[in-house]
């Protein structure tokens, strides 16, 4: 048996608990400037005990032949839909696995950190009625709330919340994890009995044994596994690990063979700063599914310190706050931030028209379809110039 350690072990929850214990121990044992040395000694000793214990656990798993990687439901992708699907499955009693590229980006809102709006708010209400979490978290993490289309009939009114993107993601992450300790299981080769532990996360599967029936792992799914009768049997990851389940839910968002463009420059990415996911698109195509590419335009971020607000129209949140969730325990009023409205001018339109050839769509580098009811600013200028 060969164990190859490359780099260091990452265990945020464990390190935090050990540090607290070491601080407590050193304060009891020694009240001197040398206490820091004892913190290091205690940490080293406890880490050694933890590593020895968990290596024995892995040895036991290997001696039995394989890890237990069989589930009732596998959910691929940890965005809004993936979190709701995984939680719903686990709450119904199914043994569920949530696979995501980065556990620290669960329920992340990279573009417009908002929940609700026309049509979408009705969906959030329905998800809440079925026991979902998105409405409850939005009611706790909003920066501003407004009911849209109040001048029209009730059928088209919609609640929209601008949310704190970091607080929202943290709250959803807490719900799906429900604990701090991070256990590590390793993608290993049983035939050679060689395992590689690495600080470069992909070969390792970082697992949270969390909400009853729900486990979370970091992995890139590349293939759907079929049985003899073309029944779903599970998924395979980039590093060759197989997870088995009769039901697989794909909530991959923008990551499947994703690519981002900034002017004429492009790079593979699921979104800015995060890698794309490869393999699952080709796997679906082999199964007979037709795929197509979609595109979305992300507005540039503006440094608030450079904005002259004197010429902008303030837009305050509603004085009487409305709620997504039907549970009053989550109706927590908080101070709202003010938004500001601005409008384009003929000079803006001229600048855009003169530089249409610099955009991926009008420059001919991208042929993907954009969202039908949310056109980009260059599309608005190009198609609706008569309304300016």
From TrEMBL:
Keywords assigned by UniProt, alphabetized? FAD, Flavoprotein
Residues forming the MnmG N-terminal domain are 72-184, 210-382
Swiss-Prot/TrEMBL cofactor(s)? FAD
Pfam families per record: GIDA
User: GO molecular function: any one?
Assistant: flavin adenine dinucleotide binding
Q: Entry's InterPro entries? A: FAD/NAD-bd_sf, MnmG-rel, MnmG_N
Instruction: Output this protein's name.
Output: tRNA uridine 5-carboxymethylaminomethyl modification enzyme MnmG
Metal-binding as a keyword of this entry, yes or no, is: no
Q: Mention one GO biological process in which this protein takes part, according to its record.
A: tRNA methylation
Which species does this protein come from? Morus notabilis
């Amino acid at each position: 048996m060969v164990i190859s350690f490359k780099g260091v072990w990452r265990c945020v929850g464990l390190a935090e608990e050990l540090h607290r214990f070491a601080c407590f121990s050193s304060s009891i044992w020694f009240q001197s400037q040398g206490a820091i040395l004892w913190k290091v000694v205690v940490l080293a000793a406890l880490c050694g005990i933890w590593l020895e214990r968990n290596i024995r656990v892995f040895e036991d798993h290997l001696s039995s032949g394989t890890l237990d990687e069989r589930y009732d439901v596998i959910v691929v992708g940890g965005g809004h839909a993936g979190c709701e699907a995984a939680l719903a499955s686990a709450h119904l009693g199914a043994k569920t696995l949530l696979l995501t590229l980065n556990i620290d980006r669960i329920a992340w809102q990279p573009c417009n950190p908002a929940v609700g709006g026309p049509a979408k708010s009705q969906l959030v209400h329905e998800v809440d009625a079925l026991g979902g979490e998105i409405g409850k978290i939005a009611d706790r993490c909003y920066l501003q709330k407004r009911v849209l289309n109040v001048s029209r009939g009730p059928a088209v009114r919609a609640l929209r919340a601008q949310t704190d993107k970091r607080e929202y993601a943290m709250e959803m992450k807490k719900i799906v994890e429900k604990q701090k300790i991070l256990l590590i299981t390793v993608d290993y080769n049983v035939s050679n009995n060689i395992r590689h532990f690495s600080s470069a996360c992909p070969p390792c599967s970082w697992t949270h044994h969390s909400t009853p029936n729900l486990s979370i792992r970091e992995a890139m799914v590349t293939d759907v596994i079929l049985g003899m009768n073309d029944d779903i049997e599970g998924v395979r990851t980039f590093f060759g690990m197989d997870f088995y389940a009769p039901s697989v839910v794909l909530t991959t968002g923008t990551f499947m063979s994703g690519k981002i463009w900034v002017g004429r420059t492009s790079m593979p990415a699921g979104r800015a700063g995060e890698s794309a996911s490869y393999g699952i698109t080709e796997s679906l195509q082999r199964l007979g599914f037709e795929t197509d590419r979609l595109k979305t335009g992300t507005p540039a971020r503006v440094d608030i310190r450079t904005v002259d607000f004197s010429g902008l129209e303030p837009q305050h949140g509603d004085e009487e706050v409305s709620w997504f969730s039907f549970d009053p325990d989550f109706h927590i009023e908080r101070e709202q931030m003010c938004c500001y409205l601005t409008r384009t001018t003929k000079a803006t339109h001229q600048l855009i028209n003169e530089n249409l050839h610099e955009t991926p769509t009008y420059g001919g580098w991208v042929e993907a379809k954009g969202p039908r009811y949310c056109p980009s600013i260059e599309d608005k200028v190009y198609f609706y110039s008569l309304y300016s």
